[in-house]
Every structure is written in structure tokens, then in C-alpha cells.
DNA sequence: AAGATTCTCAACCGCTAGTGG
DNA sequence: ACCACTAGCGGTTGAGAATCT
């Protein structure tokens, strides 16, 4: 007998979330803040397990989540980070603050695996060297180990310097969610609370279809009140930052943000080689520290 | 038009890490 | 050191949508 699932208790609901449940959860978090997930089902009256609530919040209802297709830049970043970190989706997601680990994982498993496989096949047919680019499983642990070593060094450096290094406060604006110099406060909480309440207001104005998908979309649109939406030619809706709004990421919901990989291993140090295909940085970094296994990368 | 197949992604499961007593 | 408990992570599943035949 294995361990019973946490949601096996009588009366605990499973499956897609309804708009009503979303509202209850958002309202509760609006009032009490995220965290203490165990208490949420009891206190909010939701017939869901704590895990389900946390997942629903982090993957869908949390403000600042971008949905829709991934940009080329995001794709490249994911490819590089996946090669570097392996399937550590949460770590990868920390470099893409607007995407959830679940989103990235899904995207990788559906789109990118296929795409990379196709590219590899094409390269094999053409006799080019692409096949050297992709293999990930082999030598993956070495890369992970190296990343961990780098992160440990960084953490040690920070600890020894007593003061948080300046670069942590100077990362790019697009990735600033975890590097704000202002600690979470009641003021920022209020800003985001406003966003959420506007969200709810808009949501009730729209008549949601009775499908969970449409609900998720509408709620998410509302969550992204700090962004402007544009519709691309393929019909997907893309959110772009709207400077007039308080970024949700700088507000209340930063409270539940964990220390990102970026904080521990600053983006500025690696972003150059991550974004620049031609830059030798990735090779340089890996070649410096790893054995020949790393050469299969890039 | 309708059935079959494939694709997508929200949600679940099970495991591990972290924390407090 | 041990145990109990919670939060978080990554792998997997399955329902619904999209596409194909």
C-alpha cells in the first residue's frame, strides 16, 4: 500500500477549478496574502487541498504571469538554461519571471523537444554538426554540479561580504521581480490588492463561459492588469508591461516569491552568453571547469 | 459531416527538502 | 537525532481542443 494521495479525503474536490473557486481563492489571498497553504482550504471554505490551492495560485492566478506563445528570445533562453541546468524547471523559471515552471515544462515537453528533434534530424541529414549541440542527458550531472558549485561560491561570497552585493539591485528591469531593493511592505501589498480587486471587478463584468479554459483566460487577463495586451497575427494574446501600473511583481505577491536563482547567481553575469549564440561564454564557462563531457554542449 | 488521431496544458501524484518541536 | 508536518519540485496524466482522414 502506497501513501494515500493528499486529496483522497472525503469531500475534497479535484479537477478543473471553477470561476467561483478562483474568486474565493483570489479573494482570500487578497485579504491574507499567499502562504500558509494548509490553512487556506479551511479558512476560505474551499473544498480543495492545500496543494491544489497553491498550484492554482502559482500557476494561474498569481499576478504577473504571461501566457500565450513564447518569444524567440524566451525559447533561446530556455534552451540554454535547460542545457545548463537540466530539467530544473523552477530554476529555469526564475529567469523568466513571467512564466511558471509548469508552463516552461509543458512548453519544453510539447514544442521544444519536438523542435530540437526536428532540427537534429535535419542536421544529421545535412551532415552538419547540430547533433553535437543537443544531447543533454549525458554529462548533465556535471553541469548541474558545476552550477551548484558556482551558486555555492556566490552564496559564500555574499555571506562573507555581509552586505548584499549591489548587482542584485541592478538587474534588468524586465527581470526585476526578485531584485527589488524594497522589501515587501504593506504599501506594495495594497498596490497589488488594488490590481486584484480590479481584476475581480472586471471578471464579474464579463460573463464567463462555463468552461474552465475560458475562465482561466479571463481571470488571467484580469490578473495582468499591469500589462497591455496585444493580439498577434496568430491570434495569441501577448501582454506587455504597462508603465502606468504598479507591477504586480513588485507588490504584494512578491511575498510568496522564493529567492530566485537569479538572486543567488546574478543574471547579469551570464545573460550575455545566454542571449548571444555567438558569444563563447557558455563554452568558456563550461570548458574552464568541466571535462570533455561539456564539449558536447553548443 | 463525422470519427480518429494528435496536441496542448491544467492539474494531479509522489517524492524530497526544509523546519520546528 | 528523530519525528511530524508543510512547501515545493518534477514527472505524469487525462480532458478538451485542434487537426487530419
TrEMBL record:
Keyword Transcription regulation: yes
Subcellular location: Nucleus
Example GO biological process: response to auxin
GO cellular component: nucleus
This protein's UniProt keywords: DNA-binding, Nucleus, Repeat, Transcription, Transcription regulation
Upper lineage: Eukaryota, Viridiplantae, Streptophyta, Embryophyta, Tracheophyta
SMART domains to which the protein is assigned, alphabetical: SANT (SM00717)
Domain Myb-like: 9-61, 62-112
Annotated HTH myb-type domain residues: 9-65, 66-116
Name of the protein in its database record: Uncharacterized protein
Amino acid at each position: 500500500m502506497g501513501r494515500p494521495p493528499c486529496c483522497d479525503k472525503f469531500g475534497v474536490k479535484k479537477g478543473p477549478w471553477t470561476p467561483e473557486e478562483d474568486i474565493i481563492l483570489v479573494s482570500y489571498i487578497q485579504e491574507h496574502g499567499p502562504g500558509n497553504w494548509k490553512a487556506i482550504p479551511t479558512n476560505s471554505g474551499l473544498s480543495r487541498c492545500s496543494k491544489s490551492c497553491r498550484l492554482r495560485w502559482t500557476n494561474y492566478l498569481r499576478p504577473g504571469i504571461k501566457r500565450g506563445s513564447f518569444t524567440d528570445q524566451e525559447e533561446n533562453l530556455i534552451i540554454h538554461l535547460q542545457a545548463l541546468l537540466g530539467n530544473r524547471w523552477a530554476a529555469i523559471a526564475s529567469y523568466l519571471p513571467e512564466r511558471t515552471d509548469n508552463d516552461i515544462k509543458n512548453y519544453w515537453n510539447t514544442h521544444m523537444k519536438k523542435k530540437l528533434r526536428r532540427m537534429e534530424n535535419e542536421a544529421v541529414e545535412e551532415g552538419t554538426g547540430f547533433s553535437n549541440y543537443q544531447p543533454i542527458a549525458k554529462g548533465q550531472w556535471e553541469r548541474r554540479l558545476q552550477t551548484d558549485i558556482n551558486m555555492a561560491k556566490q552564496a559564500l561570497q555574499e555571506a562573507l561580504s555581509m552586505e548584499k552585493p549591489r548587482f542584485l539591485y541592478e538587474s534588468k528591469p524586465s527581470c526585476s521581480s526578485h531584485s527589488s531593493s524594497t522589501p515587501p511592505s504593506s504599501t506594495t501589498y495594497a498596490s497589488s490588492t488594488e490590481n486584484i480587486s480590479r481584476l475581480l471587478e472586471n471578471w464579474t463584468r464579463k460573463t464567463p463561459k462555463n468552461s474552465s479554459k475560458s475562465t482561466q483566460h479571463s481571470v488571467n487577463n484580469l490578473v495582468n492588469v499591469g500589462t497591455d495586451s496585444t493580439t498577434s497575427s496568430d491570434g495569441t494574446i501577448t501582454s506587455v508591461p504597462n508603465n502606468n501600473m504598479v507591477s504586480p511583481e513588485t507588490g504584494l505577491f512578491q511575498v510568496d516569491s522564493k529567492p530566485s536563482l537569479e538572486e543567488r547567481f546574478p543574471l547579469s553575469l551570464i545573460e550575455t552568453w545566454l542571449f548571444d549564440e555567438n558569444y563563447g561564454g557558455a563554452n568558456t564557462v563550461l570548458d574552464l571547469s568541466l571535462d570533455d563531457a561539456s564539449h558536447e554542449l553548443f
